[in-house]
Amino acid sequence: MKNRTTTRFIFMLVITFTTSMLAHSLTFNKDYEVVIENTIKYKKINIKGVDVAYREAGNPKNPTIVLLHGFPSSSHQYRKVLNALSDEFYLIAPDYPGFGNSDFPSADVYEYTFDNIAKTIDAFLEKKNLSSYTLMIQDYGAPIGFRIATAHPERVTAIINQNGNAYEEGLGPAWSGIKALWKDRNEQTEKALLPAFSLKGLKWQYTHGTKDKESVNPDTWHLDYLRLSRPNAHKVNIDLFDDYQNNLKLYPKWQQYLRDNQPPLLIVWGKNDEFFPEIGAEAFKRDVKKIDYNIYDTGHFVLEEYGDVVIEKIRLFMKGI
């Protein structure tokens, strides 16, 4: 009788231990899958002979946010957003041709205009089978994003705008040198823009207007400087500076898109931006009836100094659309 009791006791211990280990294993595997799913992946897709690099995080079954970067940066500017929001959203941030880790084809084989870059990114989204997404735009991301939005208004569920301009009054004093280029492109007006590509000039773009310069990661402008030091990088980017004037011609079309479609709009804007001051943010109020409007005491790259605050704004905004 004693042996039977002992055997039964040992049997129950084994069952309890096995069940516990199985439950622990299932929990571990589930947690592991979540971690893997939310880890940022660094990928590339070939679009008509050009490898477009992109960062991807989150579950594709969740609402999608397409993150479109500005000058002089890349998808690297959205690293905080990708890390923080991949638990609830599917995030995808491409590098434009000539930027970030994407190919940098010669201007002889790739046309560096906003029209053509937008076509490349649109084709990229098509190839990723993305037909419903929120656009997050900043700087160059605005003319690229609005081209995509006007081509496919039914696909854009909302817009998150961080210093992305669509109004002529939104062009600040830092455009003076580029406007001189528009008026007369020559060796002198091109040379006047070269400081923008220097380490000092790039640092200024990240730190000007910030409350605490020491909160801005210096890796940002050093990384941009390396990419802008590649052969022909200055010429290609001056070509884009020159082509930016064609965006102004499309402003009325983009404004009409806003009036007609009334996309949910989240404004998260640095008011001390010398390129796109707060007046550019205010202008959206003319065409969009309902805006979640947020202005921060910082410069061109709001996420560098106010990343945590903006990320929570994005999370709440996305849950409300």
The percentage helix is 40-55%
Main β sheet profile: 8 strands, mixed
Number of strands: 8
The number of distinct helices, counting runs of at least 4 residues, comes to 12
CATH topology heading of the largest domain: Rossmann fold
Structural class determined from secondary elements: alpha/beta
Q: What would CATH call the architecture of the largest domain?
A: 3-Layer(aba) Sandwich
N-to-C SSE string, H for helix and E for strand = HEEEHEHEHEHHHHHHEHEH
Give the overall form: globular
- Alpha carbon gyration radius: 24 Å
Q: Give the low-confidence spans.
A: 26-35
Q: Give the rounded overall mean pLDDT.
A: 93
Provide the spatial order of strands within the biggest beta sheet: 1-2-4-3-5-6-7-8
Corresponding CATH superfamily of the largest domain: Alpha/Beta hydrolase fold, catalytic domain
Strand content: 5-15%
Number of domains: 2
Oligomer: single chain
End-to-end separation in angstroms reads 68 Å
CATH class of the largest domain: Alpha Beta
